[in-house]
């Protein structure tokens, strides 16, 4: 699993291009329709994607300058910004997501090599090295692209993204008291992922993308085999 920010930025460029092709084809009516996220229209998802890019630009600026520059002024302001922008027409969403995504790409391209190791922190004050910021953005783009509920789902995710997401989520769940023990078999990837003590743990199998989507709270695909336990929230 690469930690090279430049390699991840190349993956992000491709993911962003796919997202923008989808967004560019949405009508005003489709933007106003519900997304796959409860309580959010597609306009909410698109506004969140744009503001997330802006927030991550702040983290890259912080990494280079050493001056604390939070992603958002507050959680409440983040929510308010998404609500305020959700109802815009499709053309405004296209321009916003395109501009914000390009702004992130331009800023990331200018980060000096030594700044990638600087420690910054996210909205929930989780401390991370700046070199993980491209991965944070890639997750946002791929997952929320699927959340739009149009022609791009978890089955569209690249294999490299699915593998990395499965490793991350199962590792995170292993360190949590509220996560059930389980062994996940990704039948299309030839890989197993274990949460907690795998000895005697229930096994769930299916395509890697379906396992990943289920783990992050995007529902259980009919292709999954096994008794599915209740999962804690992810993220």
Taken in chain order, the helices and strands follow as HHHHHEEHHEEEH
What helical percentage do the residues reach? 40-55%
Q: How are the strands ordered across the major sheet? A: 4-3-5
N-end to C-end Cα span: 19 Å
Mean pLDDT metric = 96
CATH fold group of the largest domain: Four Helix Bundle (Hemerythrin (Met), subunit A)
CATH superfamily of the largest domain: dinb family like domain
CATH architecture of the largest domain: Up-down Bundle
* Beta-strand content: 5-15%
Silhouette:
globular
Number of helices: 8
The overall number of domains is 2
Low-pLDDT runs of 5+ residues are none
Rg over alpha carbons: 18 Å
Structural class: mainly alpha
Protein name: Maleylpyruvate isomerase
Keywords: Isomerase
InterPro entries: DinB/YfiT-like, Maleyloyr_isom, MDMPI_C-term_domain, MDMPI_metal-binding, SCP2_sterol-bd_dom_sf
GO molecular function, one term: metal ion binding
Highlighted features:
8 helices; 2 domains; three-stranded mixed beta sheet; about 240 residues; 5 strands; Four Helix Bundle (Hemerythrin (Met), subunit A); globular; mainly alpha; about 50% helix; single chain; about 10% strand; two-stranded antiparallel ribbon
């Amino acid at each position: 699993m690469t930690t090279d920010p430049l390699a991840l930025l190349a993956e992000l460029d491709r993911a962003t291009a796919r997202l923008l092709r989808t967004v560019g084809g949405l009508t005003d009516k489709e933007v106003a329709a519900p997304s796959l996220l409860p309580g959010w229209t597609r306009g909410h998802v698109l506004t969140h994607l744009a503001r997330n890019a802006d927030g991550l630009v702040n983290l890259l600026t912080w990494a280079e300058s050493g001056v604390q520059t939070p992603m958002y002024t507050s959680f409440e302001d983040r929510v308010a910004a998404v609500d305020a922008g959700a109802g815009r027409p499709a053309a405004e969403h296209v321009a916003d997501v395109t501009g914000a995504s390009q702004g992130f790409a331009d800023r990331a391209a200018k980060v000096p090599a030594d700044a990638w190791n600087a420690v910054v922190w996210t909205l929930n004050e989780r401390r991370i090295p700046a070199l993980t910021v491209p991965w944070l953005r890639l997750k946002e783009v791929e997952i929320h692209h699927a959340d739009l509920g149009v022609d791009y789902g978890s089955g569209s995710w690249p294999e490299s993204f699915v593998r990395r997401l499965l490793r991350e989520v199962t590792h995170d769940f292993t360190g949590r008291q509220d996560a059930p023990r389980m062994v996940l078999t990704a039948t299309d990837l030839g890989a197993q992922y274990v949460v907690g003590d795998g000895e005697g743990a229930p096994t769930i199998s299916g395509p890697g993308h379906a396992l990943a989507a289920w783990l992050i709270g995007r529902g259980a695909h009919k292709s999954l085999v096994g008794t599915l336990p209740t999962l804690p929230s992810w993220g």
